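> call design_seq(struct)
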């Protein structure tokens, strides 16, 4: 033996050879002989590293502390990359006269040395040993790859991890030489020398021979290298690139730094497969020589791998190791025993069998030895090795410890060998047998492994089309995570073909569930989304999915199979506690798909089980994500308040990195059985949580037997806590000892976390912190047994033993049916949704499981100011214990009657709120919906109409006053304010409240309150901002001095200015003194001192002194979807931010109290991620009201004319470039000689309203110069147009000034007087804002709003769309649209399609699934013959028509 090699192989060899499962077993095989140079060496056992790793960890658990990352590697990589590029630059651009021989010498001595180091750093990065995040490791590898000319890092990473995974497995280990290499070399020393020189080429050829489709990162690596190579050629020289290429050739070939490629796995000693190198080269090459250590622990970086060698010296000392890389190359070339064939190979069956562990002693006499703690002597020898042997315990396939007489290991191996011949007993999984038999036949037929010829044919069609499915499972479908990367090196997954077969079978049972929850219910709002489910009973058409998919509220959905066949589904069960439910479809509806069902196997869920999550992930039709079960007893994750939270169960945990849409996906094992169901995940850590299936299987069995699924409960939430925690809260050591004696695997107990007040547990005396010991004399340590006992004892009284303060207490607890505290009804009234408080919310907030819960706080009950989770305490002074109480009280109240509602938020039960609500029974019906699981539909019952409304009253007068109609005698006294100007205007200020039952014209808020100004007390006219009263459809009321409330109607909406005029009946005010405000005819100027008067909710009328800081043209940005904006007028701003506290107000000039302006607001786009609306505040001249008021005071409706255009301003210099000549500039300057510089601007047409009268005469970008002979430079010059049917204009167009006559539009704005609610979409004629932003109207049928959870929302019928066709019927207007809907109703079709055109003129076809039960077609229109002025029609089978009474 040469002096440079260490050989301790002989020490203890007999013991090692007698024990094939010993961690130091070296094998009985011989290395290749001199005569047989065409074949690999074969072994019947697994690779040695896994068993050695386990033995080391058993002996030295501190080795785990060495795991981690070493960022220093990246620093070294950056430094050597810079050095290599600098040398390349010098060779190509500085040493231009250098002889080529000198360049080659430098390439070998410097470049080759550095290139070999590059390979080492790429290796470290490939194992994620540089940084924690795989992305940063990939980037590190690509960084050092840049000076290497060819892309290496990402392909090396991919195939090297497979080498670790399938070491020595023929056809699967890419590090094994090709058949062509062996045949070509034929053990010839000269050819071996050439082979070593060209090793880099052969390494690439082996990867190509794997015949796998390149992955995304490999393409990234390729393009990066092409870019760098091109830059070097462009800016340096070809000499630089040649230097780098030759350096790589040397660094991966005949170079000491590349000798580790031969040193690692080429056989230098009989029986030993892997070799380490302990020479000085490790200093420069980052300990790459410690290859045995690396294969044993690939999680340890190079800076700590020597520490492993020092800790586990007794495991590595007996192994042969190299000390000279130069001698490795020399010996390989010259020795007739060495060549490319000197590698150990094994069949895949042997690879798998070795990874099956058996919990039996190693020999017949070792049973007693395993009971003692093993120890290793410092002297080695037979006793040492025997002790090591006894530390290894192997596990059976069912994970149960064998209690029978142990079988000698050699006998077991013999039995396995004999049974493996039949291909049955060794691996009972069918697909594994198939794969093994296929490999065996292939080997016997002579095609034992891939060849280079086959590798060069990977451009064939089948190779590329099937490439994705041929990849290892951990490399496809889903984004890479740290957990997946970390586990890929030591993965024990079967062949890809086996998992592929499982995936194909499973995919035929998996469905995409598209569903809507029609209304807000419990913890979930109205929603339209999609998730996953899978068939568990194809004969009955039963699909398993999550509870939050089957919905606690009304469910409407459909299932889509793998072949895109779609069937309707309805919910037949949703668990009241756990996150699972069942959907049902008619099997007869499936005509084409070969439906499979997945068997539920909850008992197979164990730690370490390899899984696939197969389902709809992030909207993908089918996604397959890999992972391993890491926990089976995890407490349910907490998803926070006002969210569904499972409890009283364990969850499974794994790292498979699923995302939105994967809820309900089956978690399958290698058998294809479901062992869990995807429930939730944590994206920050790529952790997934799975629902265990024990309760699911029980529920399915009962449904199949047509029995009701009853769930028992005691209204107590338990959590699983470890013994160390339980001891601290009062459990005695004797109890712990007793529990551990009964179940040695038990590590904790169930502890009462939440005890609901007034529940069975509370009545029995259970307290938070009690440790559950037993139920009905049966010890309970987990949730499976806990749930089984309760589910089987509904209606019974059980004896429950808990331990509290180190004392055991026996309690008698009544078990109730959870269905009794689970809401199955909801009430829809006035836009609000109410139902009984659910057990879910009661448990989370620890309140009694009773009360009236407001699921949708809107409409007549806008109680969202208190926060989420509103619980109604009383209505009209009567306590609310259940939904029946609310129905009873509300049914007795007249329509529009006001009543107090006392409520609080579950998030803050200490603060009680009150709201005076108004009974709204005229716009909508009061409907009670009750769940019907047999049909899947919530049956609707429309309640009787409300009693007739009361007359307007101060608040709630006595019954005698109401019946006598004495409201006219009521009076309100206006306050006397200290400021004289404020006192003058106070009698003209009112509060205006407007409630909008339908959100039309893109207005985002259903209820608004602001300050109004009485402008004609005799007629009852009030001016208010259009941000308060945006349209006519709604309930309008006016409050005088916060004490007298009367109804009102909208009489005028200005089309371009932000004000509306409403009218009340002055006779209803009684003796209340109201004064008409005095309107000033003067414009507001900058610097004017004004008083702002506005109503404050807490202080009443407030007055603020302010000055006008700016007067300028309005510049409110357009909104999407289009919403009313004030245009073509000046606005002004105030110098105080306090003005923005008020959305509306009145501005006066001081003591005289004359109104100079209105303070208004505009609701714009959302300003933040919470989707809160951005509100603009500004003032405009009160004199702009006068043209309208003058006509209304004369008793006629205003006839106001306007140009149907929107102006913007441009400067003189911009106008000059557009063709404005000097004569016009001089004329305009003379006109503005007495005005400020701000008037030295011109008006340009920005857009023209669609269908405007002026569209034929004017065009966008026209610059207005004159109006009826007067120069126009400001918006004030346009104000007098309001009285003219046509105007003479001089405009600048196409570099020329021309004269045109343009008609004006009367009442430019289109008032919305008719709406249709269909499939949850609000449809009406396009309002002015739409016409202003649209050049052409594709149709008069405009979608203004889509209600959440509706078919329209699910189909993405978004606002700003025009419906041009329903089916094949054209719908140019609302009449044709309603007629088409009637045809649909007659046909009773559940599906239709519509053709829409967006405001951007892009056409689209949208399919809708209709549901008239939850979303009937309702038409609301103006009807002056009814008391309210509105009428309502239900376009359903009954064809009911009814006016809206008020």
């Amino acid at each position: 033996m040469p002096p440079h090699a260490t050989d301790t192989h002989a020490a203890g060899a007999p013991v090692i050879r007698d024990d094939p499962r010993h961690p130091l077993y070296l094998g009985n095989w011989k290395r290749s002989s001199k005569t047989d140079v065409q074949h690999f060496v074969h072994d019947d056992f697994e690779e040695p590293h896994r068993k050695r790793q386990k033995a080391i960890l058993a002996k030295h658990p501190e080795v785990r502390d060495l795991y981690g990352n070493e960022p220093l590697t990246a620093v070294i990589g950056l430094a050597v990359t810079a050095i290599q590029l600098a040398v390349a630059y010098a060779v190509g651009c500085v040493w231009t006269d250098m002889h080529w021989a000198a360049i080659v010498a430098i390439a070998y001595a410097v470049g080759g040395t550095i290139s070999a180091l590059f390979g080492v750093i790429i290796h470290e990065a490939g194992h994620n040993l540089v940084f924690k995040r795989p992305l940063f490791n990939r980037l590190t590898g690509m960084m050092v790859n840049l000076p290497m000319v060819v892309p290496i890092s990402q392909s090396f990473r991919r195939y090297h991890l497979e080498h670790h995974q399938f070491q020595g497995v023929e056809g699967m280990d890419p590090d094994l030489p090709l058949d062509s290499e062996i045949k070509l070399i034929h053990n010839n020393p000269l050819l071996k020398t050439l082979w070593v020189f060209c090793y880099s080429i052969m390494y690439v050829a082996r990867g190509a021979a794997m015949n796998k489709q390149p992955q995304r990162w490999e393409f990234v690596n390729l393009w990066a290298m092409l870019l760098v190579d091109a830059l070097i050629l462009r800016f340096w020289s070809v000499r630089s690139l040649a230097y780098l290429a030759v350096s790589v050739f040397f660094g991966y070939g005949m170079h000491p730094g590349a000798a580790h490629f031969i040193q690692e796995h080429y056989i230098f000693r009989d029986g030993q497969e892997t070799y380490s190198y302990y020479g000085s080269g490790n200093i420069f090459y980052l300990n790459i020589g410690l290859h045995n250590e690396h294969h044993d622990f690939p999680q340890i970086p190079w800076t700590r791998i020597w520490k492993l060698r020092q800790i586990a010296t007794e495991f590595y000392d007996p192994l042969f190791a190299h000390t000279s890389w130069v001698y490795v190359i020399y010996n390989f070339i010259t020795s007739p025993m060495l060549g490319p064939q000197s590698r150990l190979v094994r069949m895949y069956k042997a690879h798998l069998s070795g990874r099956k562990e058996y919990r039996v002693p190693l020999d017949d006499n070792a049973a007693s030895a395993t009971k003692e703690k093993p120890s290793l002597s410092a002297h080695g020898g037979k006793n040492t090795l025997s002790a090591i042997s006894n530390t290894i315990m192997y596990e059976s396939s069912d994970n149960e410890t064998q209690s029978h007489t142990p079988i000698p290991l050699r006998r077991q191996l013999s039995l396995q060998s004999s049974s493996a011949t039949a291909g049955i007993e060794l691996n009972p999984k069918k697909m594994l047998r198939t794969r093994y038999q296929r490999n065996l036949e292939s080997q016997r037929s002579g095609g034992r492994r891939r060849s280079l010829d086959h590798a060069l044919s990977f451009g064939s069609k089948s190779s590329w089309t099937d490439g994705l499915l041929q990849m290892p499972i951990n490399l496809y479908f889903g984004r890479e995570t740290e957990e997946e990367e970390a586990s890929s090196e030591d993965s024990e997954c079967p062949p890809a073909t086996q998992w592929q077969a499982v995936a194909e079978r499973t995919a035929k049972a998996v469905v995409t569930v598209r569903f809507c929850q029609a209304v807000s219910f419990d913890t979930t709002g109205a929603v339209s989304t999609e998730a996953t489910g899978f068939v568990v009973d194809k004969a009955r058409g039963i699909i398993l999915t999550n509870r939050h998919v089957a919905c606690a509220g009304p469910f409407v959905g459909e299932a889509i199979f793998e072949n895109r066949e779609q069937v309707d589904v309805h919910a037949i069960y949703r668990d009241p506690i756990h996150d699972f439910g069942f959907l049902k479809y008619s099997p007869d509806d499936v005509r084409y798909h070969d439906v499979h069902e997945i068997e539920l196997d909850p008992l197979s869920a164990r730690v370490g089980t390899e899984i696939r999550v197969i389902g709809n992930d992030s909207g993908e039709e089918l996604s397959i994500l890999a992972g391993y079960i890491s926990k089976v007893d995890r407490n349910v994750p907490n998803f926070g308040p006002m969210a569904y939270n499972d409890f009283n169960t364990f969850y499974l945990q794994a790292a498979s990195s699923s995302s939105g849409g994967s809820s309900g996906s089956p978690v399958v094992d290698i058998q294809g059985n479901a062992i869990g169901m995807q429930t939730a995940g944590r994206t920050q850590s790529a952790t997934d949580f799975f629902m265990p299936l024990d309760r699911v299987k029980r529920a399915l069995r009962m449904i199949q037997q047509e029995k009701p699924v009853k769930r028992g409960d005691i209204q107590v939430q338990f959590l699983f806590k470890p013994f160390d925690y339980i001891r601290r809260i009062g459990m005695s050591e004797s109890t712990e000892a007793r529990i551990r004696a009964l179940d040695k695997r038990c590590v904790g107990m169930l502890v009462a976390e939440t005890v609901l007040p007034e529940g069975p547990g509370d009545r029995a005396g259970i307290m938070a912190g009690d440790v559950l010991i037993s139920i009905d004399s049966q010890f309970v340590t987990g949730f499976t047994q806990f749930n089984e006992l309760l589910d089987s004892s509904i209606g019974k009284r059980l004896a429950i033993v808990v331990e509290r303060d180190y004392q055991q207490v026996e309690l008698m607890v009544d078990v109730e049916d959870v269905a009794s505290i689970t809401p199955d009804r909801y009430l829809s009234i006035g836009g609000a949704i109410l139902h009984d408080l659910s057990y879910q919310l009661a448990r989370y907030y620890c309140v009694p499981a009773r009360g009236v819960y407001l699921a949708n706080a809107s409409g007549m009950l806008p109680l969202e100011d208190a926060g989420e989770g509103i619980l109604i305490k009383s209505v009209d002074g009567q306590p609310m214990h259940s939904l029946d109480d609310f129905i009873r009280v509300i049914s007795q109240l007249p329509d529009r009657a006001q009543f107090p509602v006392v409520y609080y938020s579950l998030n803050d039960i200490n603060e009680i709120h009150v709201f005076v609500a108004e009974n709204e029974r005229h716009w909508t019906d009061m409907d009670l919906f009750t769940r019907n699981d047999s049909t899947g539909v919530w049956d609707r019952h429309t309640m009787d109409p409300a009693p007739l409304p009361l007359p307007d009253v101060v608040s709630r007068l006595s019954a005698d006053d109401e019946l006598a109609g004495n409201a006219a005698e009521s009076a309100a006294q206006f306050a006397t304010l200290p400021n004289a100007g404020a006192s003058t205007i106070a009698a003209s200020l009112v509060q205006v409240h407007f409630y909008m039952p339908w959100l039309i014209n893109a207005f985002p808020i259903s209820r608004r309150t602001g300050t109004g100004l009485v402008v004609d007390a005799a007629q009852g006219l009030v001016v208010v901002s259009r941000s308060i009263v945006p349209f006519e459809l709604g309930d309008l009321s006016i409050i005088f001095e916060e004490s007298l409330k009367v109804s009102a109607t909208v009489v005028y909406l200005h089309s371009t200015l932000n004000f509306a005029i409403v009218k009340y009946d002055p006779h209803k005010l009684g003796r209340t003194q109201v004064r008409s405000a005095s309107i000033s005819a003067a414009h507001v100027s900058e610097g004017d001192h004004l008083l702002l008067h506005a109503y404050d909710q807490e202080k009443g009328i407030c007055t603020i002194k302010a000055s006008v800081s700016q007067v300028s043209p309005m510049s409110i940005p357009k909104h999407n979807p289009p919403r009313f904006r004030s245009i073509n007028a000046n606005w002004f701003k105030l110098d105080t931010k306090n003005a923005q506290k008020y959305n509306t107000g009145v501005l006066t000039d001081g003591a005289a109290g004359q109104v100079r302006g209105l303070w208004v607001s505009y609701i714009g786009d959302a300003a933040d991620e919470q989707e809160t609306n951005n509100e603009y505040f500004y003032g405009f001249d009160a004199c702009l009201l006068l043209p309208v008021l003058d006509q209304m005071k004369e008793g006629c409706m205003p006839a106001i004319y306007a140009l149907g255009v929107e102006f913007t301003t441009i400067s003189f210099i911009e106008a000059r470039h557009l063709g404005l000549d000097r004569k016009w500039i001089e004329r305009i300057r003379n006109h503005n000689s007495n005005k400020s510089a701000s008037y030295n601007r011109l008006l340009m047409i920005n857009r023209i309203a669609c269908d405007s009268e002026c569209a034929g005469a004017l065009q966008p970008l026209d610059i207005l110069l004159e109006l009826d002979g007067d120069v126009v430079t400001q918006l004030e010059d346009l104000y007098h147009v309001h009285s003219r049917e046509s105007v003479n204009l001089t405009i600048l167009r196409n570099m020329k000034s021309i004269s045109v006559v343009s008609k004006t539009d009367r009442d430019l704005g289109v008032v919305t007087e008719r709406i249709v609610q269909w499939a949850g979409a609000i449809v009406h004629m396009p309002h002015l804002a739409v016409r202003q932003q649209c050049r052409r109207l594709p149709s008069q049928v405009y979608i203004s709003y889509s209600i959440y959870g509706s078919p329209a929302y699910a189909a993405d019928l978004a606002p700003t769309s025009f419906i041009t066709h329903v089916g094949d019927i054209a719908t140019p207007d609302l009449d044709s649209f309603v007629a088409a809907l009637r045809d649909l109703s007659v046909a009773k079709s559940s599906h239709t399609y519509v053709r829409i055109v967006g405001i951007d003129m892009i056409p689209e076809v949208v399919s809708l699934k209709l549901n008239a039960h939850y979303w009937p077609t309702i038409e609301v229109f103006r009807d002056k013959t009814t008391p309210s002025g509105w009428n309502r029609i239900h376009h359903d089978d009954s064809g009911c028509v009814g006016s809206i009474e008020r």
